[in-house]
Design goal:
Penicillin-binding protein 2a (Domain 2), 4 domains, 21 helices, about 25% strand, flat
Length: about 725
């Protein structure tokens, strides 16, 4: 049988299987290509289409805008003294990764490191130069971008720092970054502290700082900062909006008058352990507040300007009798010569009794005498006799005097006065007589002063105010002229009678002892009011003492009120004994320096002094200025100055002589400035690079460095003026 050798191949992979594998490979490859295209497309879309959005989102996580605080405006006195200002302080940081600091392997940093360390040690005196060198080297090694070197540098320290090695090369080369902050400061401390006010970050402002806060604070700017490690941010160059600084406020306050008022008030309150008090001095013709002192006793026994008592309403007591007398005289119901029985100091009205502070002899007194003696009974009986049938007529007089309205002074927190009317729920049969002598009404010391000021100002009532002007960058933005509230509070006849009574109080009445030997005439009124002590009522016998008036009475320049709340059961509490001495001290000191005082006229005194008077005098200053003054006054003199720049003026045989005995010295020595005015002394000393600290007013009486001493660099010299 023949063998069949035919071979049938058995392939390893069937054709169908191979085709299936290839199809799957191609499909996977195609999928990968599609995914790659999608990824590339998405990348392109994100970069080109959404790029700005994502970059902005990234920046928002690492960059942000922060506010740049505007410099708060300064509050000045009328004569330019700074009452409240912002003092700049500086925080110093170093960017150790700055290009200029690291170029050429840090050559600039290494060359200046030793000298900079020494300077920092000398300036701050908190660690050695070696310690500063080590600190700077560590910061440089770590490439710290915002290293805090020192905080709260004063301007003088900052000025010195800017001149240090490396720092003086500028921010880009040195890496030094300055951040400026400010702190609010009242240079005069307690002086008018509550009136000027406080600017506080975490509490409500008070005083003028609050009233004019919008103008004072200005407009904040903005700065872009970038987030760094450890939660710090550094400024981004070129991305900032400068702040708009606040306006300056020019007040009506006179620093010397304020100082006089506060010291006089403090002295009496400390001596009598009083609770609180206020003293206000107003310029009669304009309504400008020259001083507003407010003192309250603190838990430790000291006194501080804690509240503005000048604008807080309380029962005024006897000072309110002026309004009662004005109403009676204006209605022609009484004259000053009418008689009234003072009932020997005790008068029963209904179920209540009116008392006078002192017993009176039996018999009748004139209305003028009743006012001068501050008789509660006299005012109460007159009010009942003439207004009992129509009390609204009396109330209308009080409203015409605007005693039912706030004064509108530029201070927040003025309390609303209360003047009752017959329609009031609390009106009773005894309200009218008690209102007549200052009870059952609430008015502030400022309102009371405003009424007396109107009498002094020939019947014209001015609105009291504290701000003269608002300045913007040294230029005048707004001025506040005096504002008339009432053209005439009463007739001329009534006004004349009121003045007579107010002068009589100081000559024959309750204040005659205080002003017995006064060298100028005074018009005013004492007041003593029993005040309630919360839930305890009147049981603690707390009295409010007051005195209000104006001076000089023949040519009123200033009006003033003093109101003091005494301690419980105080032994001395009458207005004449507590408030009166404060008023007198303020008036005495203001009148002693008053330029317009006819009894002490500067021109007359100076002319007589240089003419016939044998008194010794000596004026020192620029010889040409002395000549100009003498020529203007037409006073003959002898000139022995040999045309020297500086000279002395003194008498020889009662005749003025200009000589050259001033020890000016050479330019390297301290000159003799005793006897000079402040202007000449400052010119002479500062021209020799001497830093001057001046205290007082008038002529130089002492200098801290004797004449002839060698001038040292950055030397300070204190001059005392008397």
């Amino acid at each position: 049988m023949e063998q069949n050798n035919f071979y049938h191949p058995h392939p390893r992979y069937p054709v169908e299987l191979r085709r299936d594998i290839l199809w799957r490979v191609y499909l996977c490859f195609l999928g990968i290509v599609v995914v790659c295209v999608a990824v590339l497309g998405r990348v392109f879309y994100i970069q080109q289409v959404q790029g700005n959005y994502w970059r902005g989102l990234s920046d928002s996580l690492h960059q942000k805008y922060v506010d740049l605080s505007a410099e708060r405006g300064t509050i000045y006195s009328e004569h330019g003294d700074m009452l409240s200002t912002s003092i700049p302080y500086f925080n110093i940081y170093i960017d150790f990764a700055a290009d200029g600091l690291r170029e050429k392997s840090g050559k600039r940093f290494k060359e200046n490191l030793d000298s900079l360390s020494v300077c920092l040690a000398v300036l701050f005196k908190d660690q050695s130069a070696a310690a500063y060198k080590k600190e700077l080297q560590q910061g440089y090694k770590k490439e710290d971008r915002y290293y805090s070197l020192h905080r709260n540098l004063t301007f003088d320290q900052y000025k010195q720092l800017r001149a240090f090695p490396l720092v003086r090369q500028g921010r880009n080369k040195s890496g030094f970054i300055t951040e400026t902050t400010s702190k609010r400061l009242n240079p005069f401390g307690l002086l008018a502290n509550r009136t000027i006010g406080l600017s506080r970050n975490n509490a409500q402002n008070v005083g003028l700082e609050r009233t004019y806060d919008t103008l004072l604070k200005g407009e904040n700017g903005r700065r872009l900062v970038r987030y760094m490690a450890a939660g710090t941010y550094i400024p981004v160059e070129g991305y900032e909006i400068d702040p708009e600084n606040g306006r300056d406020i020019i007040t009506t306050i006179d620093v010397n008058t304020q100082d006089i008022a506060e010291n006089a008030l403090l002295k009496v309150m400390q001596a009598n352990d009083c609770d609180h008090g206020t003293c206000i001095v107003m310029e009669v013709a304009t309504g400008k507040i020259r001083a507003m002192a407010n003192l309250g006793k603190q838990p430790d026994g000291t006194y501080w300007e804690d509240l503005n008592y000048a604008i807080r309403a309380s029962e005024p007591g006897s000072t309110f009798k002026l309004a009662t007398l004005l109403s009676l005289l204006e209605d022609h119901d009484v004259t000053l010569s009418n008689m009234v029985n003072l009932e020997q100091g005790k008068w029963k009205f209904g179920k209540r009794t009116v008392y006078d502070s002192e017993k009176h002899p039996a018999g009748e007194f004139t209305v003028k005498q009743a006012f001068e003696l501050s008789s509660n009974i006299g005012m109460a009986k007159l009010a009942v006799a003439h207004y009992a049938e129509h009390p609204e007529q009396f109330v209308n007089h009080l409203k015409k005097l605007k005693l039912n309205q706030v004064t509108g002074i530029d201070l927040a927190g003025e309390t609303q006065p209360i003047i009752k009317s017959p329609k009031s729920r609390t009106w009773s049969a005894t309200t009218l007589p008690w209102m007549a002598f200052g009870y059952e009404v609430l008015v502030s010391p400022l309102q009371t002063l405003n009424l007396y000021n109107a009498v002094a100002n020939q019947g014209k009532m001015m609105r009291p105010y504290l701000v003269n002007a608002i300045q913007d960058a040294g230029g005048m933005e707004k001025q506040n002229p005096p504002e008339v509230m009432i053209d005439k509070i009463c007739s001329d006849n009534t006004l004349a009678q009121l003045k007579t009574c107010l002068e009589g109080v100081c000559q024959e009445g309750t204040a005659k002892t205080i002003f017995k030997n006064s060298f100028y005439p005074v018009a005013g009124k004492t007041g003593t009011a029993l005040v309630a002590n919360g839930n305890r009522g009147y049981a603690d016998h707390i009295y409010q003492s007051s005195f209000v008036g104006y001076f000089p009475a023949n040519r009123p320049k200033y009006s003033c009120i003093v109101v003091i709340k005494n301690k419980p059961f105080a032994k001395i509490y009458y207005g004449a004994a507590i408030a009166g001495p404060v008023f007198k001290e303020v008036a005495d000191k203001l009148m002693s320096v008053e330029k317009d005082n006819p009894d002490n006229n500067r021109y007359t005194t100076f002319t007589s002094l240089l003419g016939k008077d044998s008194s010794n005098y000596n004026y020192t200053g620029a010889a040409q200025d002395i000549r100009s003054v003498l020529k203007s006054l037409d006073i003959p003199y002898t000139d022995s100055s040999n045309n020297k720049k500086w000279g002395n003026l003194y008498p020889v045989n009662h005749q003025p002589v200009i000589a050259t005995s001033v020890k000016i010295m050479d330019a390297k020595r301290v000159p003799d400035v005793k006897g000079m005015g402040l202007k000449d002394a400052l010119y002479l000393l500062e021209s020799r690079d001497i830093q001057v600290v001046a205290r007082g007013a008038g002529k130089v009486s002492q200098q801290s460095i004797p004449p002839g001493a060698t001038i040292e660099k950055n030397q300070k010299l204190t001059i005392e003026l008397n």
